[in-house]
Amino acid sequence: MKQTLVTLIIAGGITLSVSAAPQTFDFKDAKGVNNIIFKLDAPLEAINGSANGVSGTVEFDAEKPAATKGKIVVAAKSLTVGNSMMQEHMHGEKWLDVAKNAEISFAVSELKDAKTSGDVTKATAVGTFMLKGVSKTITAPVTITHLKGKLSQRIPKMEGDLLVIRSTFTIKRSDYGVNPGAPTDKVSEEIELSLSIAGAAPKK
Fold first, then answer.
1. Which helix (H) or strand (E) holds 4?
2. CATH code of residue 157
3. DSSP secondary structure code for residue 22 in this structure
4. Is residue 15 part of a domain?
5. Overall number of domains in the chain
6. Distance between CA atoms of 124 and 188, rounded to whole angstroms?
């Protein structure tokens, strides 16, 4: 009886340790739905656009959401605006210089003040934001929703979990050398970035 109890405790410990392992979520969306929205709202002109070249991975532990780490990457050439000439300028040397700087990324190193309620964790993400080859440490508010067993509802016949990350934050154009000489009445100094992206962790 005693040996059986010990065996059950050990087995239970193994089960708990397995369930507590972090999952890796892939944000390269097979459906092509993931995108980043950007906005520059100057007094004379507003520039709004999006980018759908999203990839990257995030490690998430449902039992320790504050330990979340990862990197979200956006292909710079995937940034688009409605005006074709404006888009050509945006991809050019003065703006993003996509020929030399293929990626825009945010590598999260830690979550501060994380608070979890059910499947939702709200926190402040701390990490390195890179744009046009310039890297700076920034913070951004994030809401992380862990949708256990919901992957098949997004991608049929694929079992697993989803991780949805939502955030809106602002960076300064001049900090990253994005057309620094442009008049601020026509080109806003602040760039607002918004994302609502889903990562997949297929069941193995």
1. helix 2-19
2. 2.40.128.110
3. P
4. no
5. 1
6. 25
